[in-house]
Amino acid sequence: MISYRPLKKKLAALTPEELGITLPTYYKLWHNKPVSLKVIAQICDRLDCSISEVIRYEED
After folding, report:
1. Domain ranges, residue 33
2. Which end of the chain is more exposed for a tag (fewer CB within 10 A), N or C?
3. 38 or 60: which carries more pLDDT confidence?
4. Is the pLDDT of residue 35 over 90?
């Protein structure tokens, strides 16, 4: 399962607008729901970080 746990600290400190995403997408990230890689890439660009700082794979 993909987890956005590494991103959660940043999510708590930033608004969806600051991340360049919509509120429904913000909700999906907070609740570990699937989002597109395009969204992940956009967040990485905004935060100037790598994908490994945003997502993590966790076995079920």
Report:
1. 2-57
2. C
3. 38
4. yes
Determine the Cα–Cα distance for residues 29 and 2; give it in Å rounded to an integer: 10
Quote the radius of gyration of the chain (alpha carbons, Å): 10
pTM: 0.82
One-letter amino acid identity for 10?
Answer: K
What is the CATH classification number for the domain harbouring 47?
1.10.260
Q: What Å distances lie between residue 53 and 4, 33, 48, 59, CA to CA?
A: 9, 17, 10, 18
Question: How many domains is the chain partitioned into structurally?
Answer: 1
Judged against a pLDDT cut of 80, whether residue 31 lies above it is answered with yes
Tell the residue number behind the tokens 């990485």, with chain if given: 44
